[in-house]
Amino acid sequence: MATAGIHVVWFKRDLRVHDHAPLTLAAEAGPVLPVFAIEPGQWQAPDSALRHWQFAADSLVDLQAALSERGLPLCIWEGDVFTLLAALKAHYGALTLYSHEETGNAWSYARDVAVLKWCRAEGVMWHEHRQVGVVRGLKSRVDQSAWEEQWEALMQAPTFKAPANARPAPGWEAFHHRPVDELHTLTLGVDTTPCPERQRGGRCAGRALWYGFLTQRGERYRGSISKPLRAEVHGSRLSPHLAWGTLSMREVVRSLRHQREKHAEKTRWAHSLRALASRLHWHCHFIQKLESEPSIEDKTLHPALRGLRERDPQHPRLLAWKRGQTGVPLVDACMRCLIHTGWINFRMRAMLISFATFGLGLHWREPGLHLARLFTDFEPGIHYPQIQMQSGATGFNTLRIYNPIKQAEDNDPSGEFVARWVPELTVLPVEWRAKPWALPESLQTRYAFIPGEHYPLPHDFEAEAQVWKTRIFEMSHTPEAKDISQTLMARLASHRRPSAKRGRARPVDHRQLALFEQVPESANADASPDDETSL
Questions:
Q1: Dihedral angle, C-alpha 179, 379, 151, 272, nearest 10 °
Q2: pLDDT of the chain along its 535 residues, tens only?
Q3: Would you give the distance in Å from CA 488 to the centre of its chain?
Q4: Are 401 and 358 in contact (CB under 8 A)?
Q5: Chain-centre distance of CA 69, in angstroms?
């Protein structure tokens, strides 16, 4: 039933019109004003980057076009959202606010708390809707079946159709600061490093990517995602679209399940789609960790492990790691690839943070922020719990220390990935590209390559890693530390494995899972990229 005033739909990291509960319900209630606020605080946060904004800008262009087709504007406001809401209330007299829940970084968390306080003080009703399988106010994960049941209920619930006959709020132009064709001229984010091969944002790009995965790339998903070159092609690449909400988790899960029904269980496609389904579930599992424990973003989770490792933001090892100049080829190749493209596969992400914290003895916080700024698909709820897990900071997860030499041998045996991103090593035969520091003197003249002169000599990362592995193990296994670990596990760890009977993959131990890819994708074989009803 229509109500007085206007109905403000606050877009955040949900830049789409399909399966968007706030937009659909607001349109049913009365005149609608869709808004997106370019808030300075968001782009001054230490984990923000220009590449994030550019992906968002792409997505806002698509969003504006989709809203326009339905007779609605997209009001783009430059400034904090409190000022916008106060101005709207003063102008219209009454308003109702609609948005999705967000599990973001510390800045967005504080912003949302302040918005709630403002709404209560001003008598404004704020309707927040779930977007992923995260439960607000969850105190414990001991009853994991209850968490899985609510996740399943959300995924099985009908998707929301985009409104067809919405009424725009009159006079919205007074609050519109920036046309969408100017968004890409803005330079936002703490890090403004160019990203020449950044993924394109927007729902159209996301759907085309999804369709390509379904029809071609996805068959070799399983068996490819650990290898950087193959994962670039056969990996999902949907993670930034889920991070910015150009596709909803629910529509992806539902279309994936529809697709799985078409494949026999023992086919390559079946195995790949099952592996993908598992990661969609674990996507929400990790975001729940940050929702339940926001301090994971900047404080070592386990108290017994706080104060360890070097925190100097100008430490030479940290600077070399950031530049891709550590002298360890696979590490440097991954970092340079990230700088240039904004993406690397999950195993290489895990190796990067493992190498920084174990191999170089650095505290996880600065490397974690640097990677956040490089990942176009940065998702705080996945990123920070994964950073802590891979750096051994939780106290209860199995320590996973990735040896970059072994990773190169297993996942880049041809040396092609290293050669692409560390061209100074192309003069060397494949067998020496993973460890050029070991090149015998008899071969240095033949290949005109001198370790330390043509490429840096590495720190003794293997000995360093052993030191930290031993120290962390000992500190986290005292009786007091074990008691704390049990408490943390009850609150944050999954206590039951996903069931394949619900359309997910065979059981996976989350302690052994590196989920840095954030989420793979899904598909519907009957759909074309232009058929919105099929998603």
A1: 110
A2: 345 689 999 999 999 999 999 999 999 999 999 999 999 999 999 999 999 999 999 999 999 999 999 999 999 999 999 999 999 999 999 999 999 999 999 999 999 999 999 999 999 999 999 999 999 988 787 777 888 899 999 999 999 999 998 999 999 999 999 999 999 999 999 999 999 999 999 999 999 999 999 889 999 999 999 999 999 999 999 999 999 999 999 999 998 998 888 888 779 999 999 999 998 988 999 999 999 999 999 999 999 999 888 889 999 999 999 999 999 999 999 999 999 999 999 999 999 999 999 999 999 999 999 999 999 999 999 999 999 999 999 999 889 899 999 999 999 999 999 999 999 999 999 999 999 999 999 999 999 999 999 999 999 999 999 999 999 999 999 999 999 999 998 888 876 544 434 333 333 333 222 222 333 333 222 233 333 333 3
A3: 23
A4: yes
A5: 30
Judge whether 124 and 89 are in contact, CB under 8 Å: yes
* CA angle, residues 400, 401, 405, in degrees to nearest 5: 140
Identify whether the C-beta of residue 114 lies closer than 8 Å to the C-beta of residue 465.
no
User: Model-level pTM greater than 0.85?
Assistant: yes
Nearest to 290 by CA among 371, 389, 367: 389
Q: Are 206 and 522 in contact (CB under 8 A)?
A: no
Distance (Å, whole) CA 33 – CA 458: 56
**Cα atoms found within 13 Å of the Cα of residue 443, Cβ hemisphere only:** 11
CA distance 150 to 135: 8
Amino acid at 443: L
How many angstroms from the chain centroid is the CA of residue 238? 10
Cβ atoms of residues 192 and 43 within 8 Å: no
364 phi, psi to nearest 5 deg: -70, -20
Q: What is the 3-state secondary structure (H, E, C) of 346-395?
A: HHHHHHHHHHHHHHCCECCHHHHHHHHHHCCCCCHHHHHHHHHHHCCCCC
379 neighbors 344 (Cβ within 8 angstroms): no
What beta strand segments (E) does 21-124 contain?
A: 32-38, 75-78, 95-100
Closest CA relative to residue 371, chosen from 403, 411, 324, 316: 324
Edge to edge, the sheet with strand 125-129 lists 75-78, 32-38, 6-11, 95-100, 125-129
